[in-house]
Amino acid sequence: MDTNFLVVGVGGQGTILAGDILAEVGMTGGFDAKKSDILGLAIRSGSVVSHIRWGKAVHSPMSMLGQVDYLLAFEPLESLRMVEYLKPDSTVIVNDYPIPPVAVTTGQLAYPSREQIDSILNAASGRYFNINVTERATQLGNVKVVNIMLLGALSSLLELPASVWETTIEKYVPSRLFNLNMRAFQAGRELLN
Amino acid sequence: MKEILSGNEAIARGAYEAGIEIAAGYPGTPSSEIIKTIAQKYGNDIYTEWSTNEKVAMDAGAGAAYSGRRTLVTTKQVGMNVLSDSLMYAVYTGMEAGLVVVTADDPGMFSSQNEQDNRWYARLAKIPLLEPADSQEAKDYVILAIELSEKFDTPILIRTVMRTSHSKSVVTIGSRPKGKVEIGPFKRDPAKYNCTASNARKMHPRVEQRIKDIGAYADSLPINRIEWRDRSLGFITGGVLYHYLLDVFSEASILKLGITYPLPEKLIREFADGVEQLVVLEELDPVIEEQIKAMGIEVRGKDIFPPCFELLPDQIKRYTSEAGLLKKSPAAAGTVPQSEQPRKTEKLPELPIRSPVFCAGCPHRSTFYLLKKMKLPVAGDIGCYNLGTLPPFEAQHTMGAMGASVGVLHGMSLADLPENRVCTIGDSTFFHSGMAPLVNMVHNGSRGVVILMDNSVTAMTGHQDHPGVDWAVTEERPAKKVDLEAVVRAIGVEKVKVVDAFKIKEVEAGLKECLDFEGPSVLITRGECIFVSRNPQPPYHVDLEKCIACHMCFRVGCPAIGKSTEKNPKNNKFKSHIDPTLCIGCDVCRQVCPTGAITPPGKSKGKE
């Protein structure tokens, strides 16, 4: 049975790296793994979406609607764009740190309210967590570790041992920032308790 | 050993394992990571360069392969239009060593101005076309392409799409052939390498025979294979669509094509005879379908699938359901059981779109702020500055191809418009194809302002070098810097102004001076891309005592500027706020604030 993930956020938040790590963790953990993301002009503060799939033999690198098990959203509005992809028993983890797009700042459209976000995601998923991870990462000393902290949170729901995650993270982050990222990962693993 | 690689990283690995020694290209999404990865990982064995444009890269590739070095040339799909002029002679001549061209196409137009299907180029040039389905195949096909190139003495085209280039999958790693390639003196063989008409007349029949020979060979190539399953329905497909298909139709028979030109006719006939209904699944144009129909075989394709945009698994499911095909395959894997149907109990509100915007600290911001204010007609070009097309600026009125803005500006001048006009073009784009039209403007006495936006990098495609910087491919590799201003002056432009892009008044004065000039003029707006300067200043802040919520600062379209939670009671609007995690202190917003409310840290007086 495949496990399908979506990692979404705003260009510049570190979602691509998080998705890369998640895909490699799948491979190291013994699965076939694929990943697909949108790069280029689309990432200049625009919406960023990465599909990651683990399984015995993964075919398409993109999930179909209604197939996604885990949605990791670095930004609340971006999570809402993905609800059609979710399985009814899926898990949604949202970083409660809204980044209003220019269309909201200039007053053309409204950012959805927290109540709207909660009710949509509660209805669309089986489990829904909404935590201000950006704030926790800032407390840890570097806002950039939001991605590793969110991966920590996700890892606490999956069966693979933490060591697989840690060795993969070590490959992907600069060595001088490894200890900070490990603290972020550990903090992330406690986040959903 | 196994690694998880993107298609582009796998092509780079394939270049290494194929013994390729030279790789050249011009950056363009989704192709750019091929050269980058080769430089980073295999730079000791393979020379890389970002050439001035794709044609220059192709000529260099031909010259290197004529000299006996295996060579790779990369481009995005529209770059192929520039490259093709030089590909066409290499098709006639052949080479002394393998020559592979990779075109990364962009169905869905994630970052391209059109959705052209570059498979036509293989047919136009009469050369083989390989289409990998995933990263393993991307690597393997580069090795195979070098083999085929040397066996049949022809350039080979490999076509990826964004989903193969930018998707990651698991790849088994091999090794590079050992030993150094010794090359002799250049082969003086004009009958083979000089396409003068009398020679070319002998070359053309060889090209025709060669593609027939390769077609026969393609029947035996294992990368074309039949997977027999339920024979009531059979699909012919290639590239990543093969994987999509397996997710939707796990029980249908598939003829999976690795080489999609020339087509393996024997294999296609065998497959067509073995299935009740034959369907071609291909994105964009009916390139395969039309050829199969020309074989006299009954086949469906574009009557089911539209010729625009991607055909992801969800779309394949939708169109085959509408055509009644999905029902015919009873065990269709894509039929989601009722229990797994997504719940849609909540109606979604209209979600605000998140358009890409100029980065906080971008040097292009001030120019577009002014262009909007001055309401000038603007011929645009390709680069980050095309974001000036979007709100809040909406100040770039044409855009079509690399370098086109300068020629379009000249055409506006020829048309004798009743208003003054400008064009915008980046430094890398100017070197790519902006110089020739500027020469044309000077020679033919045009009038108009070329705004040359010099941010010292090829920004949009991922911050590659161009001739105007002093490094090449990696920042550690020094290179000779070509002086942009000196080039413009040498071309004969009499009015050239260089201004600091972060100073709005300076840009405005320069622009006005150029507009007044009765002839072609160039305004160089100079300011480093934030990815080059890496010199962020402390974030600015808004003094809420002084802010009157006039929202002038919103007009610079900076992602760091938003609303605060405090309102101005006089107009009942929210005052401004600067996000300190995004602001890098470029100062542009301070210059438009009428009350001096925006200040750098530690300063109270903001207005000049």
Overall pLDDT score of chain A: 94
What is the annotated CATH architecture of the largest domain in chain B? 3-Layer(aba) Sandwich
Number of helical runs of chain A?
8
Any low-confidence stretches of chain A, pLDDT <50, length ≥5?
none
- Write down the CATH topology of the largest domain in chain B: Rossmann fold
- Helical content band of chain B: 25-40%
Q: Quote the CATH topology of chain A.
A: Pyruvate-ferredoxin Oxidoreductase, domain 3
- Number of domains as seen in the coordinates of chain A: 1
Q: What is the annotated CATH architecture of chain A?
A: 3-Layer(aba) Sandwich
- Point out poorly predicted stretches of chain B: 328-340
Q: State the CATH superfamily name of chain A.
A: Pyruvate-ferredoxin oxidoreductase, PFOR, domain III
For the biggest sheet of chain A, the summary is: 6 strands, mixed
Fraction in helix of chain A: 25-40%
What is the number of domains of chain B? 4
Instruction: Give the assembly state of these chains.
Output: heterodimer
If strands are numbered along the chain, what order do they take across the biggest sheet of chain A?
A: 2-3-1-4-5-6
Radius of gyration of chain B, in Å, reads: 27 Å
Following the backbone from N to C, one meets helices and strands of chain A in this order, namely EHEEEHEHHEHHHH
Mean pLDDT of chain B: 95
Could you give a quick summary of the protein structure above?
Chain A is an alpha/beta fold and about 190 residues long. Chain A has 8 helices and 6 strands; from the N terminus they run βαβββαβααβαααα. In chain A, α1 (about 15-30) runs parallel beside α6, α1 (about 15-30) crosses α7 and α6 (about 145-155) crosses α8.
